[in-house]
Amino acid sequence: MAHDEHNRRRSGGFFLIILGALIFVTAPLYLADSPELGAAAIAFGFLVGGLGFYMTFLRRRSRRA
């Protein structure tokens, strides 16, 4: 249908992308205090943002194919 996109449920993928970017950007603050915590913040931000990207863009594409 032409308006099927309006009827589907929205996931929290876009929110996860924004949250992951905020964690990734603030990671140097943690890196200055503790290198282990900074590295964990960088990895966690990348992981959360990647999960949000998957939920928003890739999961919908794999269903169509």
What do these coordinates show?
With 65 residues, this protein is mostly helical. The protein contains three helices and no strands. Helix 2 packs antiparallel against helix 3 (35-64).
Q: Describe the biggest sheet?
A: none
What is the count of β-strands? Answer: 0
Helix content: over 70%
End-to-end Cα distance, whole Å, is 17 Å
* Integer average pLDDT: 84
Task: Please tally the helical runs, counting DSSP H or I stretches of 4 or more residues.
Answer: 3
| Low-confidence sequence ranges | none
Round the Cα radius of gyration to an integer and report it.
16 Å
- Computed structural class: mainly alpha
User: Per the principal axes of the C-alpha atoms, what is the gross shape?
Assistant: elongated
Order of helices and strands: HHH
Q: Hey, roughly how much beta strand do the residues contain? A: under 5%
